[in-house]
Write a structure and sequence with these properties.
Non-ribosomal Peptide Synthetase Peptidyl Carrier Protein, Chain A; single chain; 92 residues; mainly alpha; 4% strand
C-alpha cells in the first residue's frame, strides 16, 4: 500500500525547499520547478542533501523518517516533497 501524502504538508515542503536550497547550496537558484533534478541540475551532494533534510525538519517542525528513502525519492524537488509529506513521524 502506497503511503498517504499530506497535500498541505507537501506544499509547505515545496515552499520551504525553494527558500532553503539557495542557503544550502550557497548560491542563487532563481525560479526552480518541481521537476528540477536535485543532483544533476542543482548539484546537491550527499552532504547537502542531508543538510537540506535537517533544515526541512527544523523549518517545518517535523521529524522525517528517512529509513525508506531511495534514490528515486531524491530525483527531483517534487519527488522529495512527496516523500517528506508521506514520511513524517508522529511526535511522542
Amino acid at each position: 500500500m502506497a503511503p498517504v501524502i499530506d497535500t498541505d504538508l507537501r506544499q509547505r515542503v515545496l515552499d520551504s525547499i525553494a527558500v532553503l536550497l539557495p542557503r544550502v547550496l550557497k548560491r542563487d537558484l532563481g525560479v526552480i520547478s518541481e521537476s528540477a533534478s536535485l543532483f544533476d541540475e542543482l548539484g546537491l551532494s550527499s552532504a547537502s542533501t542531508l543538510e537540506l533534510l535537517l533544515e526541512l525538519e527544523d523549518v517545518l517542525e517535523v521529524q522525517i523518517d528517512v529509513e525508506d528513502i531511495s534514490r528515486e525519492d531524491l530525483e527531483s524537488i517534487g519527488a522529495l516533497a512527496s516523500f517528506v509529506a508521506s514520511h513524517t513521524l508522529a511526535e511522542d
